[in-house]
Design brief:
single chain; three-stranded parallel beta sheet; two-stranded parallel ribbon
């Protein structure tokens, strides 16, 4: 099946825009009820992952719309952010759904934890505008989670704020290390799945030639 480049770009830009609106609405809703520290709000893995994935998807959409080659680094970034969105969707919908806290606007919560993760996965799996990714680059999916964990641990040890209780140094660094390693394993597993999907022949092809530039 072939779709024109503008249609693919419109879908991606629409998904990215909806995600940005959901994040903004959640921030404004929270700020309207209580004083909110932006560094805390934007410190959550869910929020950051959604923003990173939206940025990667929007950048790819613009290049597709312009008929330009998608750089290999952007394909890799999109693969990594797709893995993060898979983690967000799976963790929330299997472990956290129904629990107190998190995104309080129901529609925004659905967008950030269900709609956008599913869209990112389907877009990656179905649309043929990326080449297979070499396994030697799988390590790249860990760059952001490692940096995120490092910042969280520093903040937890200094100002006492952590986005999730299991990363609080007060629980003991042995426990924290266990969860950090668990996060790493989960992200690498999701990344391996995304890399594997890049080798599956997609069913949706862009009508205009859009190739990855290595």
């Amino acid at each position: 099946m072939r779709l024109p480049a503008p249609s693919i770009a419109a879908l991606r830009l629409g998904a990215a825009a909806l995600t940005l609106i959901a994040v903004a609405a959640t921030f404004l809703s929270t700020a309207s009820r209580a004083t909110i520290n932006p560094f805390n709000f934007f410190g959550f893995f869910t929020i950051q992952s959604n923003l990173l994935a939206a940025a990667a998807l929007a950048a790819t959409a613009v290049l597709v719309l312009l008929g330009r080659a998608v750089p290999a680094w952007l394909v890799l970034a999109r693969a990594a952010t797709t893995a993060y969105m898979i983690v967000v969707g799976l963790v929330y919908n299997t472990l956290l759904v129904g629990l107190a806290g998190g995104v309080e606007l129901p529609w925004a919560n659905t967008v950030l934890h269900v709609v956008f993760p599913v869209y990112c996965l389907l877009d990656w799996a179905l649309v043929a505008d990326r080449d297979p990714l070499p396994w030697r680059r799988l390590w790249a999916v860990l760059v952001y989670p490692v940096l995120w964990c490092a910042v969280v641990l520093v903040r937890g040890a200094t100002d006492g704020w952590v986005p999730y209780p299991f990363l609080n140094p007060a629980t003991g660094y042995g426990s924290v290390l266990f969860y950090v390693l668990l996060i790493a394993v989960t992200v690498v597993t999701a990344g391996a799945g995304v890399f594997g999907l890049s080798r599956v022949r997609p069913i949706v092809r862009v009508s205009e030639s859009v190739r990855t530039r290595g």
